[in-house]
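Colleagues,

For the teaching module next term, I've prepared a clean inverse folding example: a structure given as tokens, and then the sequence designed for it. I'd like students to try predicting residues themselves before seeing the answer, so please don't circulate the second half yet.
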């Protein structure tokens, strides 16, 4: 027999009252019918081979969004979602086939179309990286990096367009230089951005000059004014920091809890997709 938190005398009353709200919290981050229709063909394609699905793919996506937002362990998924074993298996399959990245690009294009009626394809991108501490006890890809090599964790690199919409992400060990992982991120995704003509970055990415020249791109390096101290917002690069801040609200990203780069990248894509949907809700159709 299952004992709920509100019925367990060992749980403080103030926590017991909040326990029931955990299930309802999932509705705040789930996709509505119209939003699901925008990506349904990616997560549940027609003509999919294999045995019929036992659980709705939409419920699987909702469960993964819940894990990303709350940071809960798989075994603690609320009963309103499919069994955690089934969700975890589906998560592994989607992690490997790149569906989250494709959904990101599709929704980003749609947001651009609705916002000031821009072209869906950007002509300029910004790149930056963030070093986060690792939070995993066991085998992992984390190593020491960041300023002075004092952060043992991972490096998250992100490609942003002018409106601050994530287009592509990458996660590496913390040690490699920003230029190295930035070069690989651009090499992986520039072919998907045929209209891009300019790349904006801070001084840490001056080493991208050779790649920009080969790709016939303009590389624009932004730096604080001479003599300035402390944090100085650099337009339009502050939009990258804003995106990182918003993604950091997803508890699964509070640290890097993953054992592989593929899992860390996929969770960053999940949160980025949810952030893009949040931006889409603010733009009138």
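(Answer key — instructors only)
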């Amino acid at each position: 027999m299952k004992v709920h938190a509100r019925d367990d005398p060992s749980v403080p009353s103030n926590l017991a009252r909040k326990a029931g709200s955990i299930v309802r919290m999932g509705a705040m981050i789930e996709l509505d019918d119209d939003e699901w229709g925008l990506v349904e063909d990616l997560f549940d394609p027609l003509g999919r081979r294999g045995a019929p699905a036992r659980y709705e793919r939409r419920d699987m996506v909702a469960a993964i969004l819940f894990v990303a937002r709350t940071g809960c362990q798989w075994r603690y998924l609320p009963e309103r979602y499919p069994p955690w074993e089934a969700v975890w298996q589906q998560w592994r399959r989607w992690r490997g086939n790149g569906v989250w990245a494709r959904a990101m690009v599709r929704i980003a294009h749609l947001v651009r179309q609705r916002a000031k009626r821009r072209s869906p394809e950007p002509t300029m991108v910004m790149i930056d990286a963030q070093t986060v501490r690792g939070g995993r006890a066991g085998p992992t890809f984390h190593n020491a990096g960041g300023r002075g090599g004092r952060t043992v964790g991972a490096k998250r690199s992100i490609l942003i367009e002018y409106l601050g919409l994530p287009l592509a992400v990458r996660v590496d060990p913390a040690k490699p230089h920003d230029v190295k992982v930035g070069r690989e991120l651009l090499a992986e995704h520039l072919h998907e951005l045929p209209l891009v003509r300019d790349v904006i970055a801070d001084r840490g990415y001056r080493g991208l000059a050779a790649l920009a020249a080969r790709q016939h791109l303009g590389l624009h390096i932004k730096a604080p004014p001479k003599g300035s101290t402390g944090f100085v917002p650099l337009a339009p690069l502050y939009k990258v920091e804003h995106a990182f801040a918003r993604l950091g609200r997803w508890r699964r990203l509070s640290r890097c809890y993953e054992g592989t780069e593929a899992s860390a990248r996929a969770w960053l894509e999940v949160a980025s997709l949810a952030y893009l949907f949040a931006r889409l809700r603010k733009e009138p159709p």
